[in-house]
Design brief:
This protein is an all-alpha fold. It has 2 domains: 42 residues, no CATH class; 73 residues, no CATH class. Helices cover 76% and strands 0% of the residues. The longest helix has 19 residues.
Length: 115
Amino acid sequence: MIDKIKKDIYNYKMIIFFIILYLVFMQVIFSTLCPIQAIFHTNCPGCGLTHATIYMFTGQFKKAIDTNYTVFLWWGIIIVLFFNRYIKKTRIKVFPYFITFVASTTLLRFIINNH
């Protein structure tokens, strides 16, 4: 499993580098990681996911739900992806449908909360 993770990191090192570069740039220049907030000065559908993740990992589930309840769906997908890629060593054929469902749920939550 560790060898596969190392191989993935090596194979995607340029993508990882540019993501880190983007994050540093956005934080230093705009004081936010979100391009929607930087450009339009408004919340985006994913707003609160970072804070919700912190709340979730520290056992503050009520705060996580209040901040952005789709955090549980996103982390569910991450866990399933990790499990299937590194432990079962298989691909999930319906994975794009899971992503579409969770992204749609996140967008719907945003629309409902902002009306």
